[in-house]
Design goal:
With 329 residues, the chain is mainly alpha-helical. The chain is built from 15 helices and no strands. The longest helix is centred in the C-terminal third of the chain and has 38 residues.
């Protein structure tokens, strides 16, 4: 199968997944208790006003008509209006994307910087204290709930030690870089780093543990293969064999997991953003859930689904490039 056919098939599968998410979210909204017209209006609204809102919003139409209208709106980029703020949903989603993307990328960087060296050390020093320590760390990282870890980090580094702020995002990464370029000041960048340190560590811990275990197992498998023995027999330095050949071959499954987990991280940021009051999509989703603002909830979930599918297709493209047998299967 050619690369183009492989990616086309993945794209069609992705569209089907997104359609499924859209349908499920609309179905949940349809069966949820409560009258949407009453939710849009202030308490004590007259019955005439409630009926007027139902007519204007098409809530008197059959459910399948509302579904078709909703899907048509999504296709044209119209996500509707928030029931609580009466603002366009797409605008409310877009303005929160940078904070979530920053947190996701920062968590990924934290994970890669820690996990890959740790996995390599663990694999090359098997059954030694360093291996036991890395294995214990990865076990604790996978077993620790994010919300608990976040609260403990706030308690230790924010409250007791007073080293790092416990939440909020006073300045974005883009604004901090702009200040650095324009005025040569690193103050905003340091403020951003201080505020994102604990959320990124919280969100990236599970990912760090996962990549550490994956790197270790991949390295152990590769180190036992004949080409490694042959390379060493030819006199190649062990560092060159380890990092140029063995680690490179180990990276293929790591890249796959990296892509899959970036989508998961974006979805999992809901809890971390809530714990640290980080103004991203996750915190907005929780706020929308509390006020039963269904258009906003649907818009955020659909965006996360689109991001998840897009990242997975990109990973599939990279994976099939590194290993052409994937697209031929």
């Amino acid at each position: 199968m050619s690369m183009a056919k492989f990616l086309t098939r993945r794209l069609l599968q992705g569209i089907f997944v997104i359609w499924g998410v859209v349908t499920i979210m609309f179905g949940l909204r349809a069966v949820a208790p409560g009258d949407p017209a009453n939710m849009m209006l202030a308490e004590g609204a007259t019955q005439e006003l409630v009926e007027q809102v139902r007519r204007e919003e098409g809530l008197n139409e059959p459910v399948y008509v509302q579904y078709v209208d909703y899907v048509q709106g999504l296709v044209t980029g119209d996500f509707g209006y928030s029931w609580q703020s009466n603002r366009e949903v797409e605008a409310m989603v877009i303005e929160r994307i940078p904070a979530t993307v920053e947190l996701t990328i920062a968590a990924t960087i934290v994970a890669l910087v820690i996990a890959i060296p740790l996995g390599v050390i663990s694999a090359t020093r098997r059954n030694e204290p360093a291996d036991y320590g890395a294995t214990l760390f990865s076990l604790l990282g996978i077993s620790t709930p994010n919300f608990w870890l976040g609260l403990m980090l706030i308690l230790v580094f924010g409250v007791w030690a007073g080293l790092l702020p416990t939440g909020r995002r006073p300045v974005g990464f883009g604004e901090a870089v702009l200040t650095l370029v324009r005025y040569g000041s690193v103050y905003d960048l340091l403020v951003w780093l201080k505020h994102i340190a604990l959320p990124a560590l919280t969100l990236g811990t599970y990912f760090t543990a996962l990549i550490t275990r994956l790197t270790r197992s991949g390295m152990v498998d590769e180190l036992g293969k004949p080409y490694v023995t042959a390379s060493r027999a030819k006199g190649l330095p062990s560092v060159l064999v380890r990092y140029k050949h063995v680690l490179r071959n180990t990276m293929i499954p790591v890249i796959t997991v990296l892509g899959l987990q970036m989508g998961t991280l974006m979805g999992g940021a809901v809890i971390t953003e809530t714990v640290f009051n980080w103004p991203g999509l996750g915190l907005r989703l929780i706020d929308a859930l509390g006020t039963r603002d269904w258009p906003l909830m649907q818009g955020i979930v659909v965006f996360i689904a689109v991001a998840f599918v897009t990242i997975n297709i990109a990973v599939d493209a990279v994976y099939s490039y590194l290993d052409p047998q994937v697209s031929e299967g």
